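tool_call: predict_structure(chain=1)
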Amino acid sequence: MPFALTRPVSPRMGECELTHLDRQPIDIELAIAQHRAYEQTLEGLGYTLVRVPAAPELPDSIFVEDTVLVVDEAAIITLPGAESRRPETAAMATVLGSFRQLHYIEVPGILDGGDILRIGKKIWIGLSNRSNQAAVEQVQRLLTPYGYEVIGLKIAGCLHLKSAVTQVGESTLLINSEWANPGFFPGYQLIEVDPTEPGGANALYLDGAVVYPLNYPKTMQKLIDAGISVLPVNQSEVIKAEGGVTCCSVIFAGV
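tool_result:
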């Protein structure tokens, strides 16, 4: 049974951590409605929702992806690069402990899940303001015994690796090549974001379909033109918080 782990919007979401965007007012009621529609999209694809208890005191707590890497064999609880976000991990560990053996990133490592792109047994980790080489080496030690290849790569101009590149097909990636070097992805077909939509590379590939923000219409049309089945969602408020469609859930299979 496939699961989608989510967490409610914090009423303090407007106080979220920002690195590359100017702060804009966030409509909390609209954010809640949009998040529910996102969850319904996941349910429509056959995923069972697992809701982590709300954390109204933690502005970024909707962004569950940043707190954990889940593979079939284990779950790695991250150590977020922003100290204000580290309290988010405790409740995630409590919930995921029912599904997986837990491991933890430890200092000097820092790691945000948004910097992790996994396709099968290959894992890329973005070296960003939020994730470092020490964390890459810890993930390598934990997952190499299970047959995973873990690669670190530098990114620039964006918050996370998955701000710059995500999977949109079995062997197809959506990329902003100004932010992530395409040379790290040999053998993949690459679709470049529309140049007027630099933030449009974040997509959630599930079961042959792509959950995608309708807020990037030109890039969305590129996906449709490539024959990709697109499920549009409105992410206007999450985007203001430097988030995207991958950030708001953790997808994993029951074992």
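agent: DSSP finds six helices and 15 strands in the chain. Proceeding to next step.
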